Amino acid sequence: MKNEFTITVYAENHVGLLNRIAIIFSRRKINLESLNTSPSEVPGIHRLTIVINETEDVVRKLARHIEKQVDVLKAFYNTADEIVWQEMALYKVPTDEITEKVKVERLLREFGARAVVIRRDYTVFEATGHREETDRLVQVLEPYGLIEFVRSARVAIIKASDGFHSLLKEFEQRDPGGEAAEHEIPDNPEAAFAV
């Protein structure tokens, strides 16, 4: 049975990685519901948050395949219950509708929306929440002349995780890299290559 899964990928930010990951999904004819990329808590490492509807078996295989990419360090997958997530939405509404109708202002407060731009001809409101909440506000604002609407991709944090940074520190403690060896010529070069 297909469910909604959030795949979190930690990777180095190199040109072409996003394309290679997108190809993994397109070859399997899997649609991305949401895709977000951003810096992570580890300097130099980016975080990709991908939302898909698929079976757990398929998602597990996808995560393993994504981890095989050269620049990818780790890929996790989680259900909605295992993460804390939000999306941000912007709504553009005619200013005269807002100022004339106190009901609209009350509705916006009820949804936790706040004004980010107020002009004579329009006002832009911002709200965060789950997709159902931001969609519901669209339906509420449509009768008042909703001009434009846009929603961001999902941002998510894994509930049970200590973060990738702690996983990276744990790995470094188990397998320290040590000092880089300098190019040395041994006293007896033939002995160095003898079997």
Report what the structure shows.
The protein has 195 residues and is an alpha+beta fold. It has two domains: 3-83, Alpha-Beta Plaits, CATH 3.30.70; 84-151, 2-Layer Sandwich (Alpha-Beta Plaits), CATH 3.30.70. It has helices at residues 17-27, 56-67, 95-100, 102-110, 131-141, 164-174, 189-192, and strands at residues 3-12, 34-39, 45-54, 72-79, 83-94, 114-118, 122-129, 148-151, 155-158. The strands form two sheets. Strands 5, 6, 7, 8 and 9 form a five-stranded antiparallel sheet that branches. The chain has a four-stranded antiparallel sheet with strand order 2-3-1-4, covered by helices on one side. The longest helix is centred in the first third of the chain and has 12 residues, at 56-67. It is elongated.
Any idea of the CATH class of the largest domain?
A: Alpha Beta
State mean pLDDT (0 to 100 scale): 86
Per DSSP E runs of 2 or more residues, the count of β-strands stands at: 9
* CATH topology title of the largest domain: Alpha-Beta Plaits
* Relevant CATH superfamily of the largest domain: ACT domain
Assess the beta-strand content as a share of residues.
Answer: 25-35%
Main structural class: alpha+beta
Low-confidence segments, given as residue ranges, are none
Shape: elongated
- In DSSP terms (H or I, runs of 4 or more residues), the helix count works out at 7
| Helix residue percentage | 25-40%
Name the CATH architecture of the largest domain. Answer: 2-Layer Sandwich
Rg over alpha carbons: 24 Å
Largest sheet composition: 5 strands, antiparallel
How many domains is the backbone divided into? Answer: 2
Distance between the termini: 56 Å
Secondary-structure element series:
EHEEHEEHHEEHEEHH
